[in-house]
Amino acid sequence: MKTWERNIRKVVPYVPGEQPKGEKLIKLNTNENPYPPAPGVRQALLEMDFESLRKYPDPAARALVDCLAEYYGVGADQVFVGVGSDDVLATAFLTFFNSEKPVLFPDVTYSFYKVWAELFGIPYETPALDKAFLIRPEDYFRENGGVIFPNPNAPTGLFLDLSQVEEIVRHNPDGIVIVDEAYIDFGGESARKLLDRYENLLVVQTFSKSRSLAGMRIGFAMGSPRLIQAMNDVKYSYNSYTMNLPSLALGTEAVKDEAYFRETLEKIVHTREKAKKRFQELGFTFPDSMANFIFASHERIPAAELFSALQRERIFVRYFDAPRLSNYLRITIGREEEMEALFAFLEDQVSGWKP
Ligand code: PMP
Q: Cα–Cα distances in Å, from 132 out to 43, 157, 171, 245, 270?
C-alpha cells in the first residue's frame, strides 16, 4: 500500500436505491412520488431566466426560506434549507452531535444515520425496536450525545404518536433531538407543533416525497433560531451556495400550490390503504404504514425470492439484506395502475409457489 493510500479516509458508504433505465418498468424502490410536481413548477421551469444562470444563487436561499416560514407559520430565522434532507441531516449531525456520549437512533431505521456517524467520528448506540418494530421511547430517556429518528420510521412506515415524540424531547433537555419527517405528509402529525416549547428540537422534512421533487434535491429543517443559526454557521464553513437557482425557483412554486399538494397526497394515501387490503389477502404481513411505502413479508415465500422474481418482471422494489429485515420488501406506493400490475404479478407468484 502506498503512503498516500494509507491517508485516504475509509468509509462504508450508504447505498442508494437503483435508478433503472428503460421504458417498460415499474419503479417502486425509492419512495418517489408517482405523480408529477405541481403544474406551477412546470411553468416556473419554462419561464426560468436562462441568463440568470451566469450568476451565483442567493447564498441565504431567502425566497425559499421565506416561503417555507410563511407556509409553516414560523420565523424565517427558524428555517434552514439544503440539498435534499440528506444534506440537511448531514449538516445537523456535523453541527449538533459533538459530544463524547453516544448519539442514539433505532437499530432498524434510515441506514444513512450510521454512515454519517462513522464519517464524522460520532459515537452512537442503536436501541432495538420492539418485536412489532415500534420505537420504545424509554430507550431514549438516558444520557446521550443527541437523538435522531424518522417519524414515520423507515423502512417500517410506523408512526410514533406525537405525545411519545414529546416524551422523548422532554426527557432530553441537555441534547438535541432531531425528528426526520421525510414521510410525515402521508398521514402523521408533525413535531413542528412542539417547536414553541422546545428549543432543542429540530424537525427535518423534504420535497422529495410529498412534493414530487426528488430530482430537484430540496430539504429543510425547522427549529429554534439558535439551532438554525448554528447550522448556517456550519454551512457557511463548508459550502455557501448549496441551493442552486432552479431549486430556489421551483421549490417555492411547489409550496404555493396547496390544492395540488393535498390532492396528490390523498391519492397516494387512498392507494396505500387499498394496497394494505390486497397485501393482506395475498398472505403478506406488514407494519401499519403511515408513509408512502409498505414494508411487507410473505407468510411462505422468502422475500429474496420474490425480489428476484419481481426484478425479472421489471418491477423494482427495495430489499435489505440485513438482520431483522431480510424477509421483507419495501414497496413504494405507485399509481393505481402500477399497483394493479404489481398485485397481478404477486397473485400469480403466490398461487404458483412451491417450496
Ligand atoms: N430521511 C429518510 C427517512 C429517508 O427515507 C430519506 C430518503 N432516502 C431521506 C431522509 C432523504 O431524502 P432526500 O435527501 O431526498 O430529502
A: 45, 12, 24, 44, 24
